[in-house]
Amino acid sequence: MKKIILVIMVGMLVFSLAGCGKSETENRGEIADVNENTTRQETAGTVLDAELESSATGESETESAVAGGSNVLVVYFSWSGNTENVANAIVNQTGADVFEIVPEEAYTIDYNALLDIATQEKESGARPAIAGSIEDIAQYDIIYVGYPNWWSDMPMILYTFFDSYDLSGKMIAPFCTSGGSGLSNTVNSIRELEPDADVLEGLHIGSSSASDPENMVSDWLGRLGLVE
User: Fold this and answer.
1) Closest by Cα among 107, 101, 99 to 158
2) Is the pLDDT of residue 214 over 80?
3) Can you tell me the mean pLDDT for 205-219?
4) Distances in Å between the alpha carbon of 189 and those of 72, 83, 156, 165, 199?
5) Is residue 121 classed as helix, strand or coil in its secondary structure?
């Protein structure tokens, strides 16, 4: 009888220890998931803070790249990062210098508030100031100009850019990102702003494709005959 009771007690002890071990493993897994999510959130927050700081101070790492001696330049304004992705793809495939249009007064990161601001700027014909400048734009023969489509138009800060530089005799290749509005009438607007420039066929890339634009950029550059 004592042996039977002893066997039962040992069995209960083993079962209890196995259960504790399983629970501890599961808990460790949950903690790992939480830590991973927290790390991702902190990383995303750090990147966002850096972008906001860059826009707020008018500083841009790409601005200093406009001194490489290339005859090709990519100029772009990007709010969400989509246009920046396309600009980087063009730089990768052409070896162009790059200048990011950064507003002196940073735009809000709130989408709904931005819609109101974009409407007000368009209705008033605003010319938001650009932080920084291109020192020697005369050295460039081909200029790619990128922007998001805001209310079927370029953001008004692009008008500031075209007002600031004489692009006569240069080839201008516009590229645009949007949710579905396409290029709208922006290519014709650029032709009106720069009547003595050769404004080429524009490229539109939808927001859903902007994260991986390499193939679309390659096809476009090939049609324009700007890459071998």
Assistant:
1) 101
2) yes
3) 96
4) 22, 19, 12, 15, 10
5) helix
Bridging pattern class, strands 102-103 and 130-131: antiparallel
The rounded distance, in Å, linking the Cα atoms of 110 and 30 is 33
Q: What does DSSP assign to residue 36?
A: H
Q: How far apart are CA 147 and CA 144, in angstroms?
A: 10
Distance of alpha carbon 17 from alpha carbon 5, whole angstroms: 19
Q: What percent of the chain has pLDDT over 70?
A: 69
Which of 154, 140, 19 lies closest to 83, judged by CA? 154
What is the mean pLDDT of the segment spanning 39-57?
31
CA distance 169 to 35: 56
CB hemisphere CA count around 72 (13 angstroms) = 13
Pairing of strands 203-206, 97-100: unpaired
Task: Give me the count of residues in the chain.
Answer: 228
Tell me the percentage of the chain whose pLDDT exceeds 90. Answer: 67
Share of the chain residues as helix, strand and coil, in percent rounded to the nearest 5: 55, 15, 30
Nearest-angstrom CA–CA distance, 113 and 53: 19
Residue ranges of E strands in the chain: 72-76, 97-100, 102-103, 130-131, 142-148, 171-178, 198-199, 203-206
Measure the CA angle with vertex 118, ends 115 and 120; round to 5°: 110
The values of phi and psi at residue 144, to 5°, are -90, 130
